[in-house]
Design goal:
With 84 residues, the chain is mainly α. It contains 4 helices and no strands.
Length: 84
């Protein structure tokens, strides 16, 4: 029985040294830079984590305030909303 321990231990050590790569599907996952609409289809766990850092994930640019004053929207007809 002891003659099997050394080869078994060697196999365990060698198996632990092998690099573990994620599945091919995970490597091919589109990024927000290549597919911005893909953000709409994130898994709930990804969405919860990534919304906190959205400004680092998606490209963005600040828009400075203009020099012209802000104008109020014209009054319109009320919207008929069906509560059901």
């Amino acid at each position: 029985m002891t003659r099997f321990i050394a080869p078994l231990l060697a196999a365990v050590v060698l198996a632990g040294a092998l690099p573990v790569a994620p599945p091919a599907a995970a490597q091919q996952r589109p990024t927000p830079e290549t597919d911005p609409a893909g953000v709409l289809f994130w898994a709930p766990a990804d969405r919860e984590r990534a919304f906190r850092t959205m400004e680092t994930i998606l490209p963005h640019a600040p828009v400075p305030r203009g020099d012209t004053p802000v104008r109020a929207l014209p009054a319109g007809a009320p919207i008929d909303v069906d509560p059901s």
